[in-house]
Every structure is written in structure tokens, then in C-alpha cells.
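Human: We require from you a protein record containing the residue sequence and its fold in C-alpha cell form, and nothing else.

Assistant:
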Amino acid sequence: MPVSILVLYDRKNSAIESLARAAASGVELSGADVTIKRTTEATTTDLLAADGLLLGSPNWSGITGSLKSWLDDQGDLWEDGSLAGKPAAAFTSGSGQHSGLEMTLLQMIHWMLACGMVVVGLPWGERMRVSGSYYGATAVGDMTTEDMAQARELGARLASVATKLTRT
């Protein structure tokens, strides 16, 4: 039975939705099941049912207030260990290359770590010379083919880690 990955994002711009869809494509190409939901549609049950999480937020000097609120509304999942051991990855988009993209990724990763999740990033690749971060997939301004490829790679990588973790 294939693993299931939840791609959860706050849609404040079209670039973040494009990254979410590209990441979901990578999950599907790896043979895993994928569910894509905006924070306005997702529930705690969706989060708990998934074998892995791809979490996205546009960069608004960090994560958006509505994503922060959604994460806060999940209650004490960090304390009860419900998400502990599940793999998770992050993606973001912004208007400028030095506008805090990595800070946005790190804010999402901080929540993942607090929940005991296994954070999955991207190892160095030639594509990172023009797009991306070790911490997760990124896009600056208009989406590029490199941005989309990196998001697909992150989705596939997360699905692969989830598969390995569920088999142990």
C-alpha cells in the first residue's frame, strides 16, 4: 500500500499554489498517494491521517498569519506526539531573493521539529545555483522551470523517506 502525503499550503499568491502542485506531482511520480489542501480546507484529521507532510507558505516576513493560526489551532499535537516520526518538508515563494525565504522555511521547520517530525530538505544540486535552498523548495517572482523541478524533487524525496519510515 503506498504512503500518503498531505500537501498543505496557505494560498496568498499563485506562485505558492504552483509550487504545491509541482511538489504533489513529485509525490505522485514516486508512486505515493497525495492530497492537496489549502489551510482553509484542511483538518487535524487530514494531518494525522497522512504519512508525511509538505507544508507551504508564501513569504510575508515569515509565514502568513493565517498559516500560523492554522498550526496553532492544531492543539497540542506537539505535546501528545501524534506527529512524531512523520517526515515533513517545506516550500515557500516570495517577491525578492533576499526577502526572508529561508526564514519562512525555518519557521515551518521549527513547528515540525517541535512536533517531533523528521525534517526532509534538499541536498546540494546544481539547480541550487539559480533556485532553491537546502531547507526546502522556493520560488522568487515568476515561477521558473528550475523552481518547479525543485518542488517536484522535494515531493519525490519526501515520499521516498515516508516509504522508508513506514516500512521499518
Q: What stands out?
A: DSSP finds six helices and six strands in the chain. The first helix runs from residue 14 to 29. The CA atoms of residues 39 and 69 lie 10 Å apart. The radius of gyration is 14 Å.
